[in-house]
Amino acid sequence: MNKVRIIAATVAASAMLTGCATGPNRNPNDPLEPMNRAMYKFNDTVDTNIAQPIAKGYQKVTPTPVRTAISNFFSNLGDLGNMANNLLQLRITDATQDLMRVAMNSLFGVAGLIDIATPAGLPKHHQDFGLTMARWGMPSGPYLVLPVFGPSTIRDGVGRAVDVRFNLLNYIEPAARNPMYIAQFISARSDLLGATDLLKQAALDPYSFVRDAYLQQRKSLTYHGQSASAAAPNYAEPGEAGAVPAATPTMPGGLPNYEDPGESGGTPGGASGAAPNNAPAAPGLPQYDDPGADSAMPASAPAAAPVGASAAAPAAASAGATTAPAANGAPIAPAMPTVPASSPAAQ
After folding, report:
1. Which residue has the higher pLDDT, 101 or 202?
2. Where along the chain is composition biased (Gly residues) (predicted)?
3. Which long-range contacts (CB under 8 A, 24 or more apart) does 293-296 make?
4. What is the longest distance spanned by two Cα atoms in the chain?
5. What are the backbone angles phi and psi of residue 299, rounded to the nearest 5°?
6. What residue spans of the chain are helical by DSSP H?
7. When comparing pLDDT for 170 and 334, which is higher?
C-alpha cells in the first residue's frame, strides 16, 4: 500500500512539473527550460566559485594597459574568423574591412596589441558560423544552455564547433595553445565582470534575463541591426500595379514649373486678342498676355498696312462724301471727315 502511495505521489509531482513547464508563461523559444535552468545553475556555480575569483585576481594584479593589450591581441585573431564568415555571407565590404583591420593592427599595432584600425574608421564586425547559417536561412532552433560556454541555440551550438577551425590558436602546438586558450578565457571573463554585477542587481530572474538578452542580440546581429520585417525596395515599373507614382516633373536644376494660369481654361483662338493655347512660348517660361488684349482686334482681322503705305495714300477725303456700295450691295457707313490742319481742333 505504501508503494502505491509513493508511486501516486511521484506521478502527481511529475504532472505538476509538466504543467509548470507548459504553462501560459512558457517561452516558446525555450522548450527545454527545465534542463536549461539546471545547466544554468551549474554554470553559475562554477563561474561564482572559480571563474570570477580568477578574473578578479587577474584584474587586480594586471595594469589596465596590459589587460587592454591582451584583449586587443585576441580580438585581432578573431577578425580572421569574422572575415571568413563575412565572405560566406557575401558581405564583401565587411570582409574587406576585416582583412584591412588584421593587416593594419598586425603591422602597425605590434602584432595586434594596439588597436589602430578602430580609430582609423574600420569598425569591428562580430560574426560567427551560427550567424552565417542564419544568413543562409537555417532556423535557430530552441534555446540551449551549454556547459561552461553558457547561452546558445541548437544552430549556434553547431556553429561553435565550426568556429574552432577558424581560430589560429587551434593550429599551434598544444604546449603553447592551451595556455593561450586559458589566457583568452580569463581576459574575456575579466571584461564581463561589470555585466555580472549589473545582472545580479537588476534582474529578478537572471536566467530569463540572460536568455531574452541573448536571443535579442542574436536576432539583431543576424539582420545587422535592422528589423526582420523591413519592407523591400519597390522595383516595379511605373505602369505596373503597386508601383510608386512618379513625382511631378520640375525644371532642370530643381526649379518649380510655373505654368500659364490660362492654359487649362483659356478661350479658343480668335475669341479675344490673347494668343491661342497652342501658341509656342519660350521653353520653361510662363506666358504673360497683354492686359488690354480683350479689346484688341480679332485674331482673324488683317494686319494693318505699313506706315509708308498709309503716308502715300491721299490725305483728304470730301467731308460729305459717301462711300461706294459694298460688293454685296449693302451700304457702308460714311467715313469720318478729316480735320483740316489749320482748324483750331487740330491745334
Report:
1. 101
2. 263-272
3. 296/272
4. 154
5. -65, -25
6. 2-21, 33-46, 52-61, 64-88, 92-108, 129-135, 154-166, 174-191, 193-202, 206-222, 307-312
7. 170
Q: Please answer whether residues 59 and 191 qualify as being in contact, where contact means their C-beta atoms are separated by less than 8 angstroms.
A: no
Burial 234-258 (b: 16+ CB within 10 A, else e): eeeeeeeeeeeeeeeeeeeeeeeee
Cell of 193: 565582470
What is the reported pLDDT for 293?
52
In the chain, where the domains are located: 31-222
pTM here is: 0.57
DSSP structural state of residue 339: P
- pLDDT single digits (tens) 231-264: 344 444 545 444 444 444 444 444 555 555 555 4
Q: What does the radius of gyration of the chain's CA atoms come to, in whole angstroms?
A: 45
Render pLDDT for 166-188 as a digit per residue (tens, 0 to 9): 888 888 888 999 999 999 999 99
Q: Which amino acid is at 44?
A: D
What phi, psi does 334 have (nearest 5°)?
A: -60, 150
What percent of the chain is predicted at pLDDT more than 90? 47
CA 288 from centre of chain: 46
C-alpha cell at 310: 498709309
Query: What cell numbers appear for 8 in the block?
Result: 501516486
How far from chain centre, in Å, is Cα 325? Answer: 85
The count of other CB atoms within 10 Å of the CB of residue 156 is: 24
- Exposure letters 65-84 (e unless 16+ CB within 10 A, then b): eebbbbbbbbbbbbbbbbbb
The β-bridge partners of 152 are 144
Pick the closest to residue 52 from 185, 181, 203 (CA basis).
185
Comparing C-alpha atoms, which of 34, 77, 290 is closest to residue 163? 77
| Look-up of cell digits 547559417 | 133
Of the candidates 136, 192, 180, 178, which has an alpha carbon nearest to the alpha carbon of residue 159? 136
Amino acid code (one letter) for 103: A
